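Ex. 9. Protein: PH domain-containing protein.
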Amino acid sequence: MLNLLSLRRLSWGSGSDGQEKVVLSAVELATLRSEIADLEEREAHLKAQLEHIDELLRSARLSGYLYIRTRWEALPGEPPPIDDTDVDDWLPRFVVLHGKCIYFYLSSTDISPQDSTLLSDIVEVGSLPSITREDEDVSYAFYISTRQGLRYECSSISKIQVDSWLLALQDDCKIGCGNETSSSNNGSINLK
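Predicted structure tokens for PH domain-containing protein:
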């Protein structure tokens, strides 16, 4: 335990009973107490993270790491967005489908999500063409469009994972949104 703390050279002395003791000055004792308090605080924070992750994974319908990028649709009267399909701005995010919401975490150990969207705000979910990256890995992709004009593009090297997300989102949005229209030929479902 003492090796974890910053006190490098401790003074050792002998007690009246012949046992060796550590002799600390008042400053060293205060430093030691402060470091112990910091370690206890860090331990409590890590325990809270683990409990949060455990609860999240137990109660989530679907969760896992996906590569995500976001795009905004052009507003009426604006020029169409620049074609940026060659830009590699896919970022790994831990995505959780829980209740009536999708949560986007920077990592699975984060307590608070970076972003979220309600299933009732989703207007369209569908497949995107697969992506071949520079390292020759193929990623399968899908998108989620919201009524606010935000489009989440999601990808994974696992086709099964992408299919699972598509199926879960299409099922949940039918239930959550209630008034779906027919799907188009590209595997998307329109929920306006």
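Check your answer against this statement. The first strand starts at residue 11 and ends at 14.
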